[in-house]
Write a structure and sequence with these properties.
The chain is mainly alpha-helical and 209 residues long. The chain has one domain. It is built from six helices and three strands, in the order αβαβαααβα. A three-stranded parallel beta sheet has the order 1-2-3. It starts with a helix and ends in a 9-residue tail after the last helix. The C terminus is likely disordered.
């Protein structure tokens, strides 16, 4: 029974999926124009776009991980930890910003819904009044229908928000949540000791020899 349970647990484990990037220096992954301290910089826009687009192409239930192929030898022993913290911080920030965008959208949706309902109620009342004022007039009937159509058109924006606009934003926030939780590994292509890592992490103190 224990073996069967272990097999079932393995089947339920989400598959792992690596997002792979190759750079000559780790700092190439970050936005050189960002004035923030080095480890707190945003990712380079092209690097961020590549990581996000790659994640979108992977199965939604996959456990994401980032593998960085680095064209130099290993440097500071904790640089993979520093890199992972910086990348996850960036995507946590993107997730918060996206969820704030979703809140603003719903706030605008509620306001536009109230305005649309008020306008629709006014249009229905106006249509009824026109029908009473011009009961046998073809022009009156046309005007009455036009007013009603205008009232329903006013409901277009809130319906668009609550039916279509919100779920792509929520999906984006959930994708950023997955990226903010992914482990980050570095695969070095050089074997010889090098001081090149100091250019990647200028604020990192030298490792005692």
């Amino acid at each position: 029974m224990a073996a069967h349970g272990g097999s079932a647990a393995r089947k339920m484990t989400p598959p792992e999926a690596d997002i792979e990037v190759r750079v000559a220096e780790l700092r190439r992954l970050f936005d050189a124009m960002d004035p923030s301290p080095f480890r707190e910089r945003d990712l380079d826009p092209k690097a961020a776009e590549y990581i996000v687009d790659s994640a979108r192409e992977l199965p939604r239930n996959a456990s994401l991980a980032l593998l960085v192929h680095l064209d130099r030898s290993a440097g500071s022993p904790d640089e993979a930890v520093l890199l992972g913290d910086a990348i996850r911080r960036f995507f946590r920030s993107r997730s918060r910003a996206t969820r704030w965008q979703l809140k603003r959208l719903f706030r605008a949706g509620r306001a536009s819904l109230l305005i649309g309902l008020a306008f629709l109620a006014s249009a229905l009342a106006a249509s009824h009044f026109i029908g009473l004022s011009l009961p046998e007039s073809g022009f009156g009937g046309l005007l009455s229908e036009s007013v009603i159509i205008g009232g329903w058109v006013a409901m277009w924006r809130p319906l668009e928000i609550f039916l279509y606009d919100w779920w792509p934003i929520l999906a984006e926030a959930r994708l950023f949540d997955r990226l903010a939780a992914m482990p980050v590994r570095i695969k070095y292509s050089g074997a010889a000791a090098s001081e090149a890592w100091r250019r990647d992490w200028p604020a990192t103190a030298a490792t005692p020899v």
